[in-house]
Amino acid sequence: MRVATLYLLISVAGLLTFGMVMLYSAVLHASGQNFIFKQICWVTLGVGLGFVVSRLDYRWLQRWCWPLLGFATLLLILVLHPDIGKKLNGARRWFAFGGVSFQPSELAKIALIVFVAWYGERYRRYMPTFWRGLCVPGMVLAGVLGLIFVEPDRGTTVLMGAVTVGMLLVAGVRWVMILPPLLGAGSLLVVSLILDPVRSLRLKAWFNPEAMKDGVGYQSYKSLLALGSGGLDGMGLGNGLQKYGYLPLHQTDFIFSVIGEELGLLGTMGVVLIFVTLILSGMFIALRAKDTFGFLLATGITFLIGLQAFINIGVVTNTLPNKGLALPFISYGGSSLVIMLIAVGLLVSVARYGKTDPLKEPVNVEPEPVPV
What we know:
Radius of gyration: 22 Å
Shape: globular
Strand content: under 5%
Helix content: 55-70%
Order of helices and strands: HHHEEEHHHHHHHHH
Largest sheet: 3 strands, antiparallel
């Protein structure tokens, strides 16, 4: 368990350090010091909160499951109010306080994972049943995900839908029961994308970004151009060109393109390998958890980090349509980075209070009788 925790922390520290370097390279030409200062503040806050969480027994979350979920749901409702939530690019997803913004959907990620872990622990004997195993938690999840969906935030909805479905399956829900509602939700998502003019154009640009490079496919086309320009070993750190006003959101959602352009295929594959190491460490911690709640909690957090990284890289390489998700621990941002570091703290807590390595457990040996 200690080895897995060490690999986990080394992977996160490596991604944070590498992210700071790439962010400095990406924004140095445009108010770089301001971006770096804010990112250092977010990293410091996230690491501090993650450390505090790691020192606490993760099981305290079981008592605070419903208050946490209720608070996250309340924030998701408030952010939709036109006088409270900040609207940007057609979506109302943020609370703005001066120069600081916060996405309540980021808090909802942790709340949903904690809820499914709590439910799977409390009703584990009923998880194979249709009503208690699928319908009851499904209604709660649908309500929270519905609020995220109408912001609109399709990316986070798909991400958390996949994470929670994966957790339910691991908790014991049968594939046969979960497949029909999953197909229904997928069909509704497709219909909503087709009826939404902006999202339908993004789908067309996904299929053929070069044909729509002067419109909605501009970002994807420039991302692919940056990755292609990097080749095997890249143009050199700081020598990328697409960050000079050509590639939008190059410091946030598309920072992986900057990595590919400046460090090439070797740099991008290095990032992927670090994420693989992090995911394997998280799964090992989950398997060694002492109870069902810890197992599901660690599994959900590992799913969250792994799937968000997968979706981000898929979008940047045009393998997936544009969804607007940050690359964990690397992209510039506040609420996403802090929540991810708190999630890592929870993983460390599960590892600290998990099972002892059987090879190191003391063996109770009965004393031999002393001859009289």
